[in-house]
Amino acid sequence: MLRKVKDVADLAGVSIRTLHHYDRIGLLSPASETKAGYRLYSDEDLDRLQQILFFRELGFSLQKIGDILDSPTFDRRQALGLQQKALIEKRERLGLMIETIGKTIKNMEGELDMNEKEKFEGFGFGDNPYEEEARRRWGDGPVDGANEKVQSLGAKGREQLGQQMDGLFQKLAGMRKKDPHSEEVQQAIGEWHDFLNGMGHIYSPDAFRGLGRMYVEDERFTKNMDRYGEGFASFMADAMGIRADHLQD
Q1: Boundaries of each HTH merR-type domain copy (predicted)?
Q2: What region does 139 belong to: left with phi over 0, alpha with psi -120 to 50, or beta?
Q3: Across the chain, what does the average pLDDT equal?
Q4: Which among 40, 81, 87, 34 is positioned nearest to 60, based on CA atoms?
Q5: Residues 14, 24: contact at Cβ < 8 Å?
Q6: What is the mean pLDDT of residues 21-49?
Q7: DSSP-assigned letter for residue 33
């Protein structure tokens, strides 16, 4: 059975815009189109969409999801088993957090006492999710190099580095409505590239382009970037991709 994009969006609880984005990046391209240009999704497309949404719930980037689903060794049954296990663990952790909230309220109202350990039951965010994503995509080298560079600066140096980064972002955010191909924008995005290269690892054109894609494919990054202005993450992804193309010419 073939379904139109609106029907699939309603069925899966996602927006039509999301499905269009998945199609545009090649993550989920519908089986066919009508003569009028309407996308038509097959049962196999729905199975792939289900996998995408499971992986998204577990924090995988769209790029990583695409790599997994397109791998010749991908086994859907095995993937479902692993996803089930991971989601059960997540449910248990959320249950503990809900219980901790209830205990905390009672503690505030004087109904029970909580020790320090009980106050944090259910939490377990030890690793930085941004760092985890970078490690998955490019390996340990870039992350470790950047960490060593930052740690060697000392408190004052790290503060100055943060101010420099913030200044670059503010400068670029002020250009986000301009053509990312323009000389002015490309000069500024070059400053961002140079800044990253000074952090202990040289970003190749592909790595630089990949970082830009992460800004729009991972909602955590998009939310963080767009604090500088709506559409900033998308603008950065486009400008960084253009610079990467020029460097490879």
Answers
A1: 1-71
A2: left
A3: 80
A4: 87
A5: no
A6: 88
A7: E
Q: Which helix (H) or strand (E) holds 109?
A: none
Cα–Cα distance for residue pair 113/175, rounded to 1 Å: 54
**Whole-number Å distance between alpha carbons of 195 and 241:** 16
Q: Which residue type occupies 233?
A: A
C-alpha 165/C-alpha 192 separation (Å) is: 8
**Residue 145 pLDDT class (50, 70, 90 cuts):** low
Residue 88, φ and ψ in degrees, nearest 5: -65, -45
Q: What pLDDT, in 10s, does the model give residues 123-140?
A: 654 444 444 544 454 444
Range 51-62 average pLDDT: 84
3-state secondary structure of 39: strand
From the number of C-beta atoms within 10 Å of its C-beta (0-12, 13-18, 19+), residue 39 rates as buried
DSSP summary character for residue 99 = H
Please give the order of strands across the beta sheet that includes 39-41. 3-4, 39-41, 32-33
DSSP code of 118? G
CA atoms within 13 A on the CB side of 145: 14
Enter the pTM of the model: 0.46
Lowest mean pLDDT among 41-50, 77-86, 199-208: 199-208
Greater model confidence, 117 or 14:
14
Sequential DSSP letters for 158-221: HHHHHHHHHHHHHHHHTTTTS-TTSHHHHHHHHHHHHHHHTTTS---HHHHHHHHHHHHHSHHH
